[in-house]
Amino acid sequence: MKQYLQHAILVSMVGVFFASSLPAHASLVINEIMYNPGAVGDSYGEWMEVYNPDGALDLLNYTLADGAGSFTISSPLVIPAGGYLVFGRNADMAVNGGVAVDLAYGTSLYFGNTGESLSILAPDGSLLDTVDYGAASFPTAVGASLCFKGSGDNADGANWLAASDLGITYGAGDFGSPGAPNLSTAAVPEPGSLFLIGSGLVGLLRLNRRN
Ligand SMILES: [Ca+2]
Ligand SMILES: [Ca+2]
Ligand SMILES: [Ca+2]
Prior knowledge:
- Helix content is about 20%, strand content about 25%.
């Protein structure tokens, strides 16, 4: 029995070791979506931003998909650790509203203005991330991107803001932060932090009363 236990502990330790030493693979995040640009037409100015919270990753043979089509990255394209990549309809900043696009997908993808399910798939076909911004909980955004707030589940629209609420513009004047973090210095405090500040004040008042 003791021997069995020792063996089981050894096996689970080896398992934990290998699980933690595997390369980061499944953590790409659909972080920002411009589905309805205002400065230029949608067929020039749509884009999406992908964030990589883990180690640098080559996206060769990774696929972006919408509800109807898909686009597979066919040449090496590294997304740095903690970095962003912007995929857009058109890479020409003179016509796309002034967004710096890392890779253009052309007419392979179309971001519907009433909603669309966007996904990233690994070369083996496994789903890495998906966002359906037509879900009822999502804000609407015209001439502004949708921005993931950076915590919680990005499939939940409550965790997204319209970029116009953040006050960040790019290029020809639409709201968004392509290739950069979504929360600017103009970011308003989250309701959660207001609650914490509020609770802190209540706590101080109570302490004062005790004194
Ligand atoms: Ca659109
Ligand atoms: Ca539009
Ligand atoms: Ca951004």
